Amino acid sequence: MKIFGIGLNKTGTTTLGACLKSLGFRHSSFDLDLLQQAAIGELEPLFTKVAAHESFEDWPYPLVFETLDQRFPGSRFILTQRSSAERWLASLSAHALRTDPWVGSCSRSLAYGVAYPQLNPQGHLDFYNHHLERVRHYFRHRPQDLLEVCWEQQASWEPLCTFLDRPIPQAPFPHANASWRGQPELQRQNEALLSWFGRGVGPA
Fold first, then answer.
1. Digit-coded pLDDT (tens) for 98-139
2. Cα separation of 3 and 27, whole Å?
3. Which residue range(s) make up the domain with 173?
4. Which of 23, 60, 138, 160 has a 20 to 30 Å separation from 197 between CA atoms?
5. What's the total number of domains in the chain?
6. Considering only CA atoms, which of 26, 35, 62, 21 is closest in space to residue 146?
């Protein structure tokens, strides 16, 4: 059984990854190379990575969950989400200014079609809502294979462990990446790059 976290980034994916590792799964997280390859339809490297691990979250897994379901039957899927699309967008926008400018803008361009959410807020809100609808529609006849979680509303082991048939750990529930702050220099670089993109100098 493979376990795929298919929530968009900044929906608690890092916390999910910490949970899965604590539960003993061989885990793999964000991989820019796999995202780049998946964006052009090259999925064999992704299949190789999945074959060698047990659980996954972050990019590129939310983009190709239907294909992964077909390739790895019997898998389980976890849809992390925020309490509202607006809270997700605010978190994503702040995060975009704190991370490595190259990795962040590249991954967001591949995933969302734009380097910074500030350049297209409504498009990101639509993307978020459409993703929820897409996942729910796909699993509408298989509710046993999908778990929806929102750590803002219930940050506990119980729903996850019940879904995965694992005993509840004695360790406290992790809150990974909840208050992470980047270096001021990264924020200055991102603000400059955002301004550059916003003037139409570079590709969005």
1. 999 999 999 999 999 999 999 999 999 999 999 999 999 999
2. 9
3. 3-198
4. 60
5. 1
6. 62
